[in-house]
């Protein structure tokens, strides 16, 4: 069960005051109760939205909620400082001891503070007293300020000379002095009224104190059980001591509260237009919004038919143009890739052929050294064989030089290059349903853009191949600047490599692919090294991580 308590102090203080009372009620009834300290605005909102089952509030709050929300008053509180619950709370005008106030009209030129215009003891009671004297505090008090809760801070404003007078409920000053929050002689209550057997100084008439009420939806059976439990509490019980009251009594006569409402020109003596409008306005606004939305929807649909027709034609043309550019870009890229692969194959073949040719030459020369002068014909034949070996080596050298592509260095934005490469491979990502996780810094260096893109494509394609059988493939690409080096890191969650395969990753003609040539990683390594960088790979717990570092160069460094 949720109990909303009207709070003018800190929520912790209010909770400590009332929690023991409802812990006892919980023991007596077998139900669980939750104490919720709420400001006046929060309390009204919670009651309006049926978020509470019971409330503890002042007499004005109870009367107002009775009409608007069907709240029923069950009990009245008898406070420690007065035994008459009909006359338990009033307003106190508190100022510094050095200030003398003999007449209420003096307040019009002073700095006056209050917690809230709807606070019962903190403003409404005094406002009623002023209204009976034809004084409107909102118009006649030139320096009236509402500073909110908790109420104790109003005392500090007066002590610190930031305000001259504070309007507070009666007994707030005495309670603060008792707690040691305010020096005993520093503040005083002015324009006091004599009230027999009332222990606190007060500047107004007295009204009923707190009331315990139930909301309309709360079970009357439960309410009866709670009332029975509360009525068993006496002034000697720890619950009453903690709650700072003597006991609970039957509901008091709220005639004086209605008289105050009449003086303040509030409901039920005037129509509560604010409440009525608050309930009606959402419906009116909702209807207007629906009508407006319907009309706007009609215009929107009409406009969209025209725009979509134009946009569709434009998008089709743009799509065709983009597809054509992408196809040309891929065509040029794969052409450059074939040239690079041809050059690398030429280098590999030349290396492999030069070794046996060199062996043939050395063996032939060895035979020549062992010939006798009488073996002239054999000597001539062996010399011709050496000439053919030299010719073959010269041909291989010229073929290798022909296949090599010269590098073209220029300014290269690596972030843009990676993004262009990803766009180039977008169909592959879409096929595998992959969205690469990117973390790219802006890094610029001098490089051969075509060759670096060749490296990126090879590395990304290898990652995609490794994740071909992965249910949830993940590809991460990171570009950062570290110690004048551009670091590109590509990670996947594919099948990874064995330790043996990892150690021979950059060897020519070493491949784990069924139709691979084993030259892709060799090409990547040579391109990176040609740029003065490094490339290496490590196995992850699942997948492979390739790191490429390139020196960040200026134009004059190349």
From TrEMBL:
This is histidine kinase. Keywords: Kinase, Membrane, Phosphoprotein, Transferase, Transmembrane, Transmembrane helix. InterPro entries: HATPase_C_sf (IPR036890), HATPase_dom (IPR003594), His_kinase_dom (IPR005467), HisK_dim/P_dom (IPR003661), HisK_dim/P_sf (IPR036097), Sig_transdc_His_kin-like_C (IPR004358). The lineage of its organism: Bacteria, Pseudomonadati, Pseudomonadota, Gammaproteobacteria, Alteromonadales. Residues 348-554 form the Histidine kinase domain. It comes from the Bacteria. Pfam families: HATPase_c, HisKA, Phosphonate-bd. It is an enzyme of class 2 (transferase). The chain crosses the membrane at residues 275-296. Gene3D superfamilies: 1.10.287.130, Histidine kinase-like ATPase, C-terminal domain, Periplasmic binding protein-like II.
